[in-house]
Known about the structure:
This protein is mainly beta. Helices cover 4% and strands 67% of the residues. It has one helix at residues 210-218; strands at 3-4, 9-12, 18-21, 31-43, 48-59, 63-74, 77-92, 95-106, 111-122, 126-135, 140-148, 150-151, 156-167, 179-191, 197-208, 224-235. A twelve-stranded antiparallel β-barrel has the order 4-5-6-7-8-9-10-11-13-14-15-16. Strand 9 and strand 10 (126-135) form a beta hairpin. The radius of gyration is 19 Å and the shape is globular. It starts with a strand and ends with a strand.
Amino acid sequence: MKRAIQPGLVILLAAGLPFxxxxxxxxxxxxxxxxxxxxxxxxxxxxxxxxxxxxFWLGKDLDKLWxxxxxxxxxxxxxxxxxxxxxxRAIDPNWDLQIGLRADLDPEPKRNWLAIGFYGVAPYWxxxxxxxxxxxxGQVNLRLMAEYEMLLTQxxxxxxxxxxxxxxxxxxxxxxxxxxxxVEAGIRLRYEFTRQFAxxxxxxxxxxxxxxxxxxxxxxxxxxxAQLVAGLRFWF
Length: 236
């Protein structure tokens, strides 16, 4: 899962920035990982959506620099684009504390957030990524993401996942109401040619909740969407 970087190796990554990394010692080498959790096409009722969800980290056993990215786009252009730049510190064999910045580049208006969260493996092997975001104007967003991998055979893996978002205040510009604003859930079946390379198919479901759902109805916007997905998961 982790690889020591050899002298002179240059890695070009998601942000388009070059990193030159050299292994300092055999006991605590400089490590890296680039992982595309979802590189997929989603087919819904109205249009197809292209999605990238992945991360890159660079560092040593205890301290790392993380870059996380989530991008969704249609033929009309980018619907949402989120980037996070985080300092990650291992506080337990299974958990990292992460602190940094989040930038929402789409949709308008652009938003910047302070981020603090935990990433790791909960009991029963649930992979959890949870974070509290504080926006520059005072808005607060709490996000909880969880995924579980069920090994059906040595090659076939079934992976259900869920994401919930809670907001402290109303946001009229983005039509978000205070409270739990929405849920996204999916299940994907992948075939691992190798651990690093696995195509998959599945279903993804998104639904607005509470006051956010009422705002969408008042503006004749969709409140839920079920999509068939096909994509690729890989890492190196």
